[in-house]
Here is the input.
Amino acid sequence: MKLYSLILTGLVLFSTAALAVEEPSPEKIDAVHQREKLVEPFDVDQVNEMFTKTVHGGVQHVVVKSADNTKQIKLIQEHLLKKTNELSKGDFSETERIHGADMPGLVVLKTAQPYDIKYEYEALPNGAQIHYSTEYPKFAQALHEWFDAQEKEHGNEVIQEHSKHHLTPKE
Here is the structure.
């Protein structure tokens, strides 16, 4: 009887978790896009943003749609550098302003101590990226949930050659 109860409890928990990963409504996606326009210093309509999960976290790329748009490149680089510094201090306030405090993965990410998660900024010729990595499974899972939510609410444009090199075990 105990085994049956455990199995039933597991199924209920799994079903609840599966429901929590539902697709956002078109209204939610539009609201996120409008808040993003207010928060981000670059023109969100002139950039592509991609969230690529890795074994230990993921990589966020923000690049311009037009390679000669140097103003937007500078704004992207300045903003992602600032965001990297904020995240390193456990400051997820920008994410909360755009996506809300109930964003998947966010509660767990906010419990991380300094150095539990590594945030590495890199300027790119056409924008910038942040590499998120951790050796702790609970934070890797939270990053994956957070990336999935970002992808669903922002969209996830394909940026040529960026996803191939992030799927190796060393990541």
About this structure: The longest strand covers residues 47-54. The mean pLDDT is 80. The chain has one domain: 26-166.
